[in-house]
Give the backbone structure.
Amino acid sequence: MTNFSRRKLITGGLAATAGVSGLAAAALAAQRYGLIPPDHGGVWGPGETLTYAAQRLLTTHSPAREFPRSMISKMPFANETPPANDAFKHHQASGFSDWRLAVDGMVARPASLSLSDLRSLPFRSQITEVACEEGWSYIAEWIGTPLVEVLHATGLLPQARYLVYFSIDPGWWESIDLADALHPQTLLTLGMNEGDLPVSFGGPLRLRVPRQLGYKSVKYITRITATDSLKGFGKGLGSASPEDGYAWYAGI
Amino acid sequence: MSATSTLRKPETLRHSAVVRVTHWITVIAFLALLVSGGEIVVSHPRFYWGEVGNVMTKPLFTLPIPSSRHTVPTGYGYVLPDQNGWSRYLHFQAAWAAVLTGLVYVIWSLANGHIRQDLFPVPADRKWRAFQEVFTRSLRRAPTEQAAARSYNVVQQTTYLMVIFVLFPLVIWTGLAMSPAFTSAVPLAASALGGRQSARTLHFLVSGLLVVFLVVHVAMVVVAGRMRAMITGRVVVAKERT
């Protein structure tokens, strides 16, 4: 092999060293600024980390697209059937009057909020699109309390980094980072298109996360926990989705 | 081609190492994108135009295939297993590999003149006559000109430029336009295409064009016997039979 010259070896060596130290520095910075998703392990880790880090750097505060009232879908698609468990059926029979949302974990004042407690907090509505990972979508008006208002009321502690939220449907839980949790469009949704949120769309209470795909907008929310680590929840991958083979971050 | 001509005419470098390595990484990434993208489509083989679309709205067109979701009316009496989890993981990982590899290729090729010298048609070739000549020569099964062993003809040049600078950017753009997070930062990515569902439909159609390119490209390479050139980088220059 006559192609190898000393010059090539030196430049190659320098480039490799720069590359390795660059990667190490990037990994440290990513850890420091929370750019590594909880399901970063395994064969899909590199792609997931690149997607999450790139989108986080690009979208920390950006608002999800909102649409004019004329674009609200006349025939939205509900997708799910309501949970079949007895606890939900009992609530449904009593018109959800006893529905509670527990807010606990790293908050100064843990609370158990009724739906009217939520209504007494600042309300907002937004016309945003629900996009399913399967490819379909619809637009609706969503009305509710921004999650950030509940976090202000309960005093989110500074060390909290994620919000974990649970459905009354056992095994259905998700989590989001603070960029989405504190985002003004992340909505504890009680109403849809000027009526109560129908059961088929997640009523009485759904957490809408409009900057991520539909599966992050968990229906029938009963509990929200603030935490600094996702390791203690389920298999430690961040939510139920990675345990079923789906990505934790669903901004794409 | 005789052994003596091989001896007299040494091998010529056709493809540099950077071109070959980026080419084959792109091949692997593209095949992964194709398999995973096809698998994702199975979960909703209906396509729409505009911002929204779902089973309650009228599709632009529907693929006559079964679906992996019971909610999609396909006319088939069965539902395929859900494979979207790994398909989506693979799709985005392969997309990163393709995009980063493409960036290396484009930056390297712009910097060293590969695109300007090898892919941009020379002024004499920038007319229909030049295209016609390539086709008539091919139809007459005329042997490749000696110079063509080292350079591309104008049809190849135009096709490769279109794939690199039109189809790949379009498929990346239409893909990003489906991301709710990306469009929160760059709303124009979706609205300029007519909406999220238009972006999805265009993503599918542009992918179809890339598949057409892939099939024709591989067929031409096999006919011309040039597969080895993209692996070793070298071609044997045959003497032209006149």
